[in-house]
């Protein structure tokens, strides 16, 4: 449940990687920004959960980052032990980029185990990394997360239009960040994403803005640029994003699959 006074959504931020973590939590509170603090290792979960006590806008995800699987695969049992403590899972997923390809088979094994554990408990919302591996992520979701009470959110999506269409059919949501907005190549995808599947995120501190690490308080700027790209009213878009998040959390259900989805709907006006 998120506060009734919520205004903005940052559904993927590494709060614990900022030096002024505590100040960031206060800012989320002051500006009413619902922020999912993702973690990169299960060991980090406990400390993050403690720090978020008393901050109703801050949610804490349990994660095992695919880029850390080579060193941290041993924490999988801790992940499974902690999973009942939270509705939010992230950052998890796959990374087939050249730096992490050596661990790709191990990443797949870990991701599959994580998905099966979420599926068994049900009612989880997952923030998923899919660098150069969207199709493989979707295949893992299909095989290991059949429960429709769990909602996969593809964070920082960089896939193709057909991968986007497939993800939509499967009921995935998408959290959009500033880097996606800056990318010319992503424009058609940002226009075509269905409005009821949209969330926003910063992925701070990994994304920068004006040569500094982006912060949850930069989400309003992200929303207004996204609204421009989609040619919609920015305050209506902000409202829609909040409603989308509320819908996910309240019903604990993945949006219905869309078999008839048209890739070019938002672009060519048909
Ligand atoms: Zn991240």
Question: Tags for this entry?
Answer:
TIM Barrel; 270 residues; disordered C terminus; binds zinc ion; 5-stranded parallel β-sheet; 10 strands; 41% helix; 3-stranded parallel β-sheet; alpha/beta
Secondary structure blueprint with pairings:
Elements (H helix, E strand, L loop, with lengths): L7 E6 L7 H10 L2 E5 L7 H7 L6 E3 L8 H4 L3 H7 L5 E8 L8 H18 L3 E7 L2 H11 L6 E5 L5 H9 L3 E4 L1 H5 L4 H6 L5 E3 L7 E2 L2 E2 L5 H12 L3 H18 L13 H4 L2
Parallel strand pairs: 1-2, 2-3, 4-5, 5-6, 6-7, 7-8
Antiparallel strand pairs: 9-10
Helix pairs in contact: 5-6, 10-11
Bound molecules: zinc ion.
The site of zinc ion has 5 residues, from loops.
Question: What would your notes on this structure say?
Answer:
Helices cover 41% and strands 17% of the residues. The chain has 270 residues and is an alpha/beta fold. The protein has a single domain, classed as TIM Barrel (Alpha-Beta Barrel). The chain has a five-stranded parallel β-sheet with strand order 4-5-6-7-8. Helix 2 links the parallel strand 2 and strand 3. Helix 5 runs parallel beside helix 6 and helix 10 packs across helix 11. The longest helix has 18 residues.
């Amino acid at each position: 449940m998120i506060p009734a006074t919520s205004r903005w959504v940052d559904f993927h931020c590494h709060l614990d990687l900022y030096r002024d973590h505590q100040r960031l939590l206060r800012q989320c509170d002051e500006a009413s920004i619902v922020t999912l603090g993702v973690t990169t290792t299960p060991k980090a979960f406990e400390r993050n959960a403690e720090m978020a006590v008393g901050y109703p806008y801050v949610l804490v995800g349990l994660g095992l980052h695919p880029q850390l699987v080579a060193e941290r695969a041993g924490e999988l049992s801790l992940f499974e032990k902690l999973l009942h403590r939270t509705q939010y899972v992230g950052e998890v997923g796959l990374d087939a980029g050249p730096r992490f390809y050596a661990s790709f088979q191990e990443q797949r094994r870990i991701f599959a185990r994580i998905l099966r554990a979420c599926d068994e408990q049900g009612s989880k919302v997952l923030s998923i990394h899919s660098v150069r591996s969207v199709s493989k992520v979707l295949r893992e979701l299909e095989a290991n997360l059949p429960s429709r009470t769990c909602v996969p959110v593809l964070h920082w999506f960089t896939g193709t239009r057909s991968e986007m269409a497939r993800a939509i059919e499967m009921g995935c949501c998408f959290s959009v960040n500033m880097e996606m907005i800056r990318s010319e190549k992503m424009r058609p995808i940002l226009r075509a994403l269905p409005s009821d599947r949209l969330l926003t995120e910063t992925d701070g501190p990994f994304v920068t803005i004006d040569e500094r690490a982006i912060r949850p308080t930069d989400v309003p700027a992200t929303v207004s640029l996204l609204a421009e790209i989609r040619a919609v009213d920015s305050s209506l878009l902000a409202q829609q994003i909040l409603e989308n998040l509320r819908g996910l959390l309240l019903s604990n259900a993945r949006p219905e699959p869309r078999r008839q989805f048209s890739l070019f709907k938002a672009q060519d006006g048909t």
